[in-house]
Design goal:
With 285 residues, this protein is an alpha/beta fold. The chain is 63% helix and 9% strand. The protein folds into two domains: 3-111, Arc Repressor Mutant, subunit A (Orthogonal Bundle), CATH 1.10.10.10; 118-283, Glucose-6-phosphate isomerase like protein, domain 1 (Rossmann fold), CATH 3.40.50.10490. The protein contains 14 helices and five strands.
Length: 285
């Protein structure tokens, strides 16, 4: 795994000092070979031991090991240095812009894949699949989080899974009163700290349902409440790029869950094909 991807995937769980080191390394990857651990510490105004602990926490033997690994990753990348430099200054145009954005999305998707092990994805698919056979899947997302929530609810409906989708907390609270054992609540919340969603999740668990949270890879209340947590890692200092990386990585994560549901049950797959045919017939003149 690329050390830069590893740093990005772990950044959201780092302390404030560790995030400063991570951001410096990510923003100055090509220049890292010219910095000793003491020089890096001086540039950031921190202790050298903080730099050493940072590298060891990431699984490297020490700072020289990290520096060598970053240098190798840059050397292996095809035109990676040009794209990285363009991304840092934000001055990309044409193919350079498209290539840089594509690469950053790929890195966010890879980092997200690494922090969601196969057993977690299998647990999510199994919970939704079980609920789809004998119960209901409740789905909620507020604001921009409703966009992926609505799309995911539609995909589950195409598989013949009964979904209860809502973007209003009051209505979802009322809907949850009909939940029971075996039902699933999927809560979309990028930062995972909306109080109302936490209350709905607690209420759902009181009904003995299973809660699946979809949040950033951070310590947040909603993730703590969930039985299973899907996590998204997407970071960029540019405020207009970071949401794009988050949406891209999240969509890929949900697509993997959807494919698992399709391939894990022949009846669901047949229902998907039948529903798509019906929709196509409705659209025909």
């Amino acid at each position: 795994m690329s050390p830069l991807v590893k740093i990005r995937s772990e950044r959201d769980r780092m302390s404030a000092v560790e995030r400063r080191i991570a951001d410096f390394v990510l923003d100055n990857a090509q220049l890292l070979r010219d910095y000793s651990s003491q020089q890096l510490a001086n540039a950031l105004g921190i202790s050298q031991s903080s730099v050493v602990k940072f590298t060891q926490k990431l699984g490297f033997k020490g700072y020289p090991d990290l520096k060598y690994s970053v240098g190798e990753a840059i050397a292996r990348a095809d035109n990676g240095d040009d794209d990285e430099a363009a991304a840092q200054v934000g001055g990309e145009t044409g193919e350079s812009l498209a290539g840089s954005l594509w690469r950053r999305k790929s890195e966010a998707e890879e980092a997200t894949r690494l922090i969601n092990p196969p057993q977690t994805l299998a647990a999510v698919a199994a919970a939704i699949g079980t609920a789809g056979r004998s119960g209901k899947v409740f789905i909620i997302g507020l604001g921009e989080d409703d966009i992926p929530a609505r799309s995911f609810a539609l995909k589950l409906s195409l598989l013949g899974i009964l979904t209860v989708h809502n973007f209003d907390t009051a209505r979802m609270t009322a809907n949850v009163s009909a939940a029971g054992p075996g039902d699933v609540l999927v809560v979309f919340s990028e930062h995972g700290n909306h109080p109302a969603l936490g209350k709905i999740s607690r209420y759902f668990r009181e009904r003995r349902g299973q809660v699946i949270s979809v949040t950033r890879h951070t310590a947040n209340p909603l993730r703590t409440l969930a039985d299973v947590a899907l996590l998204v890692s997407a970071h960029d200092e540019r405020p207009y790029i970071q949401p794009l990386l988050y949406q891209s990585a999240l969509q890929h994560l949900l697509d993997v869950v959807f494919v698992r549901l399709c391939e894990g049950d022949d009846a669901r797959h047949a229902q998907l094909v039948a529903n798509l045919d019906r929709i196509q017939q409705m659209l025909e003149p």
